[in-house]
Design brief:
about 475 residues; alpha/beta; about 45% helix; about 10% strand
Length: about 475
């Protein structure tokens, strides 16, 4: 299998000296940047740019037919999105600074230092990718369409906030910068990570690992792999997950629980874009995109929670926050149908019918476990039911809790409801308030409100008519 091209579109190196071009190309390849085109004749540059998509251009300032400054002006005019890096001698620094003001991305002084060369090239590539992503996001906002809706098929939603997240995911999917996904337990963070991977049409695998609780050795061996004989028991070499995910996505779940020493290791990998398998003395380039997830809030991660701020800012180049289920209640009917079909297949039963008020009953719950919790409720209810129409008892028991046990309850729990009131409401006021709250929670469904109040529907109707 041929090596993955990095970056996805070629870099164009322009210099009239063949040896200088070869030296830069070799240095870049050693850094893992292997998609490079060289050009010795600056008069051909504009034809090259017109004929294919170029990621960035590196220009020598002094060339026989056209100067780098002159060529820069034409590139900016015709291809303003392409970052242009200038290579200049010490004596030409004032000219290079003038070119920066004109629109050049950056400049390097000769002789070129590898670390500085790698840093500037990577920044230029990242800049171009972010520009593409911003353009794509603007296209989505204006057209309201997804290019690859099938990538989001596993996420059941018609909520407008979720649709906006889908568009954002697709806009950033083609880049290589890290993505931070936040949201409560059970909202579907891994599904979003997989959607970002699928939207990006990556050639490599999606590889996921839960990093919570990993010690130093397990973390290093899991992500980086090891060479034969690296430690006692390492009888065979093993590829780490970073290598398995080359050309694809490495998904690190529960990143907020990563130990401080391991945060330092991860930060170094993100900064250097390379890693050392255990027992190896030569690094391997990182060719996977990092997507990380946590159920901790973004404020907790960025604050004083033991999570390094420099790592936090590295990871949150792109941020996806998934809203909890209680903030997108219109998704509940869709999810209910989906989980009923899943449960029916699992228990080998026909898909059951259910009372129409079930939708409203499900909407009054706060769902601390989110979609995962709703799925468990539905699977349990389908497993229990045996009649044609599914009873609401299993749902009601989960949402409203079991009937109170008078013998086991304390006065504070069921005898002192109004203890905090300075003066008690009248019996009529208390009853009216309770009925109003039940009707509000039930979405004005009298049958469901009567169930909550423990009275019959006709009795509730009579009380409402009295008002």
């Amino acid at each position: 299998m041929p090596p993955r091209r990095n970056p996805s579109h070629p870099l164009l190196l322009v210099d009239d000296e063949a040896q200088a071009l070869e030296s830069v190309a070799v240095a870049l390849e050693f850094m893992g940047i292997n998609n490079v085109i060289t050009c010795q004749d600056e008069r051909k540059v504009m034809d090259i740019l017109a004929g294919q998509d170029i990621e960035a251009v590196m220009l020598d300032m002094v060339m026989p037919h056209r100067s780098g400054e002159e060529l820069l002006g034409e590139i900016i005019l015709r291809h303003p999105d392409i970052p242009v890096i200038l290579a200049t001698g010490i004596g030409d620094i004032p000219t290079a600074i003038r070119c920066i003001r004109t629109g050049a991305f950056d400049y390097l002084t000769k002789p070129l230092e590898n670390d500085q060369l790698a840093s500037v090239i990577r920044r230029a590539v990242d800049h171009r990718e972010l520009k593409r992503q911003n353009d794509l996001l603007m296209h989505h906002v204006l057209t309201g369409s997804l290019k690859r809706p099938e990538a989001f098929a596993a996420i059941i939603s018609r909520d407008s906030k979720m649709q906006t997240l889908f568009k954002y995911c697709e806009a950033i999917a083609g880049g290589n910068e890290p993505v931070l996904i936040t949201g409560e337990t059970g909202v579907g963070k891994e599904l979003f990570a997989r959607a970002v991977h699928a939207s990006g049409r990556r050639t490599g695998e999606f590889v996921g690992v839960n990093v919570a609780g990993l010690d130093d050795h397990m973390f290093s061996d899991t992500l980086f792999g090891h060479r034969k004989g690296a430690f006692t028991g390492a009888n065979e070499a093993r590829r780490g997950f970073l290598e398995k995910a080359a050309g694809g996505t490495i998904f690190l779940d529960e990143i907020g629980d990563l130990g401080e020493s391991l945060q330092v290791k991860l930060l170094r990998v993100l900064q250097d874009r390379e890693f050392f398998p255990l027992g190896a003395d030569q690094p391997k380039p990182v060719e996977a995109r990092f997507v990380v997830a946590t159920n901790k809030s973004i404020e907790t991660l960025a604050g004083k929670s033991g999570f390094r701020q420099d790592l936090y800012y590295r990871l949150r180049t792109h941020h996806i926050h998934i809203p909890p289920l209680r903030e997108r209640l219109e998704d509940i009917p869709l999810l209910l149908e989906h989980f009923l079909e899943e449960a029916s297949a699992q228990f080998d039963k026909p898909k059951p019918a259910y009372p129409p008020e079930l939708h409203q009953l499900l909407k009054i719950h706060s769902y601390p476990g989110n979609i995962r919790e709703l799925r468990s409720i539905v699977l349990d209810a389908v497993g229990r039911h045996g009649s044609r129409t599914m009873s609401m008892d299993a749902f009601r028991e989960h949402i409203q809790g079991p009937a109170p046990d008078a013998a086991g309850s304390s006065p504070e729990e069921d005898g002192r409801i109004f203890a905090q009131f300075a003066s008690l409401p009248t019996l009529r006021e208390a009853a009216d308030s309770l009925v109003g709250e039940a009707m509000l929670r039930a979405g004005n469904n009298q049958r469901l409100a009567a169930t909550m109040l423990g009275i019959s529907a006709p009795a509730l109707n009579k009380r409402l008519k009295g008002h």
